[in-house]
Amino acid sequence: MIVTRIARTLFAGLALACAVPAGAQETTLSAVVFVPRQSLFAEMFVRFVDQVNREGKGLVQIRLAGGPDAMPPFEQANATARGAVDMAALGPSFYAGAVPEGDAQSLASLTTPQLKKSGGWAALNRILNQKLNVQLLTAYGDGLEYHIWTTRPPEIGRLAGMRLRTTPNYTAFFSALNVTPVQLAPGEVMTGLERGVVQGYGWPSIGIFDLGWAPLTRHRIDPGFYNVLVNVIVNLDRWKGLRDDQRAFLNRMADWLDIDNARWVAEKKAVEDKRLADAGIKSIDLGAAHRKLAYESYWAELARRAPESIATLRPLLESGR
Q1: Quick check: 61 pLDDT over 80?
Q2: CATH number reported for the structural domain that contains residue 59 in this entry
Q3: 170 and 121 assigned to the same domain
Q4: Kindly report the CA angle at 107 between 203 and 207, in degrees rounded to 5?
Q5: Is residue 279 scored above 60 in pLDDT?
Q6: What is the distance between the alpha carbons of residues 279 and 20, in angstroms, rounded to a whole number?
Q7: Domain for residue 196, yes or no?
Q8: What is the pTM of this model?
Q9: Are residues 192 and 249 in the same domain?
Q10: Which end of the chain has fewer CB atoms at under 10 Å, N or C?
Q11: CA angle at residue 180 from 175 to 183, to 5 degrees?
Q12: Which domain holds residue 53?
């Protein structure tokens, strides 16, 4: 079976190479990522860029300009929409102001490969085409969840009254918990924790060691909620301007990322769980109602902001829930 799969992959690559028009020019796409390129949530995008550049010689190359050092994270989606940069890797919450429906992707019960078969992916892509002038190429991080992390235990099992660092994708949930949401860029969280500006933060189940927040973190609030997703978006005009063989190649690389993401997530979760235990960061389980509130509050917020789109999207994203 492995040999057959390898043979199919080699055949596909050969067929693609043969399909390249004679004298065709190589195209280079500029790209940015929402976190520093050496950090955990840039790792998979850097791997994707490297894979494209290895296999796409003479066809497509990607020049990764950097992360926040090259462009502030909350400017990257608009810059991609305008064509100031060709490609960006960032979570849908970073363009939720322009495309609130995009964040419904984080509430999906289906994985990215399943969404591509269910019609959910195509529906999301049509909205992004229309509202942000970008093509949704692929995503990674699928299989991870968000958690609330705190510097002290919640009083009597409730988070109410605490100040927590937020981003748009869980502000509605935090408000439903009666906490005070404080928006801080990732680079400002450490100072916020040190000075007591916040007593905790929302963040995925991996990455707090990478950012240096672990020494100030004492508790992880369970259960987790939502899907952690970093989308790779491409300026729509640039995408349409690529040749058929170039678009086919990038879609094949997107399929490669789907497979590699599953391996990466499993490895990172195992490593992070051990580090949390070794650091003495304790889990506090607030029960199923905590997770249910996370979903109900955000679906309600998205439906308020984009009622028609969410009514169409939700069944496509929640199949099997």
Answers
A1: yes
A2: 3.40.190.170
A3: no
A4: 20
A5: yes
A6: 53
A7: yes
A8: 0.86
A9: no
A10: N
A11: 95
A12: 24-144+228-268
Report the distance separating Cα 118 and Cα 122, nearest Å. Answer: 9
Q: How many CA atoms lie within 13 A of 84 on its CB side?
A: 10
Tens of pLDDT along 112-145?
999 998 899 999 999 999 999 999 999 999 999 9
Copy the structure tokens of residue 93: 């919450």
What CATH number has the domain bearing residue 178?
A: 3.40.190.10
Instruction: Mark whether 78 and 183 lie in a shared domain.
Output: no
Residue-level pLDDT at 15: 45
Q: How many domains does the chain have?
A: 2
How far is 247 from 16, CA to CA, in rounded Å? 11
Q: Which of 174, 207, 283, 168 is nearest to 38 (CA)?
A: 207
pLDDT at 195 over 50: yes
